[in-house]
């Protein structure tokens, strides 16, 4: 996903992804079927971490700690979160993207 800081989504190849991740193509395809799969997986992981941080503070006894946990979790993933607006438009207008049903 960090490749999107410098490259358009449609220009990123699986070769570039595996090279950046320092894994083999076999390892990549063992876990993902497409570029979209890795993006969905990464975003799900981030959302799951945010939800876990919020659930840890339920029921809310101290709103300061609740909001602090949220913002700290967002800050930990800021590099990825800054790419989302760019990513969203690129995927929406990509002719190769087919959402999972």
From TrEMBL:
Sample GO molecular function, one term: DNA binding
The organism's place on the tree of life at top rank: Bacteria
Ranges for domain HTH tetR-type: 1-50
Pfam families: TetR_N
DNA-binding region of this protein: 13-32
Keywords: DNA-binding
Gene3D superfamilies found in the cross-reference section: Tetracycline Repressor, domain 2 (1.10.357.10)
InterPro entries the UniProt entry points to: Homeodomain-like_sf (IPR009057), HTH-type_Tx_Regulator (IPR050624), HTH_TetR (IPR001647)
Keyword Ribosomal protein applies: no
Stated name of the protein: AcrR family transcriptional regulator
Organism: Fontibacillus solani
Organism phylogeny: Bacteria, Bacillati, Bacillota, Bacilli, Bacillales
């Amino acid at each position: 996903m960090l490749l999107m800081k410098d490259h358009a989504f449609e220009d990123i190849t699986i070769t570039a992804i595996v090279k950046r991740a320092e894994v083999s193509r076999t390892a990549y395809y063992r876990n993902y079927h497409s570029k979209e799969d890795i993006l969905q997986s990464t975003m799900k992981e981030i959302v799951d971490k945010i939800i876990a941080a919020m659930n840890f503070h339920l029921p809310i006894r101290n709103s300061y700690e609740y909001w602090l946990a949220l913002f700290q979790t967002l800050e930990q993933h800021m590099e990825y979160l800054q790419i989302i607006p760019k990513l969203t438009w690129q995927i929406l207008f990509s002719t190769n993207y087919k959402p999972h049903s």
